[in-house]
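Q: Could you fold this chain for me?
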Amino acid sequence: MSGYNFENMTPSSIVLDDEEMRRAWTRVAHELLERNRGTENLVLIGILRKGAPLAERLKQSIQRIEGQEIPSGVLDISLYRDDFRTYQPKVGTTNIPFDVEGKKVVLVDDVLSTGRTVRAALGALNDLGRPAVIQLAVLVDRGHRELPIRPDFVGKNVPSSRSEFVRVSLTELEGRDTVEIFRER
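A: Sure. Below is the predicted structure, expressed as structure tokens.
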């Protein structure tokens, strides 16, 4: 949700603090391992911007649980967005140092709302190869789908109105871990 100007909004509540966020993401790691029966052929790909550090955290949790390191990468979807004509993308760098062909790919992002970011990620990912399966892990699912996309793994469901916005702050980027709901002033 980096496209929103939260300075013009009023914070209304903290949904997850740092400890709650850690517990939710650890639970996601356990669920992911259970559903995939371990780490064989499993790779993580974080969607830039906030999905990248979350994928790294998930990778570390999996390594603590299983004692195995799994491959991870970063996916830039800037040029795959469907609002490209009205949005000036800040193009980042895709860094996926492994072949996705035949892999169990888990896309990782911070917030799932309309599904448009995930649609763009699927397009970008398909240009890299054909995974055996693609799963989606998100820290926050706030609803409001515009596309038929559903996450496989969710840290926290956060029902919110369309006039509210969810901001995920991560230590790696903002110096703290929180999930907050904001309202327009």
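A (continued): Residues 6-184 form a domain with the Rossmann fold fold (CATH 3.40.50.2020).
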